[in-house]
Predict the 3D structure of the following.
Amino acid sequence: MPATETFLVPKHRRHVPTARQRLHKALADWGVADELADSVLLLAGELVANAVLHCRTSYAQVGVTLTLDGPDLVLEVSDPDRDRLPRLHDSGPDEEGGRGLALVSALSDDWGCRQDPYTKCVWVRFSLTGRRDVAPAAP
């Protein structure tokens, strides 16, 4: 049975660290550490920050789900602005932002987005096969 951590945070940038802290605890409980945990937490921060910044729905909440299922670790971040899908683009050297999805692409094994009935979801998948930074947590 997969292990899952799911929660909501208010759509405000001060809650981005809260999301990372909750995910850090789940990863530690599941025995995910080192480089993989760092990558998951970095991308979680990017995706939650993007949802907070770009969601045009007032008083929204951002949904965060982390699932450890067999050989895969999947992070999903959703918000109610379902028609604004993220786009990967090249940022110029003088641009201050716009590199978050490039990081997502570089650090994950796969990523994408989907439109659900009332939300959009950006997901990131990490393959655990052959990794040394994953040790099953003690029961």
User: Anything to note?
Assistant: The beta strands are 3-10, 61-69, 72-79, 110-115, 120-127. The first helix runs from residue 16 to 29.
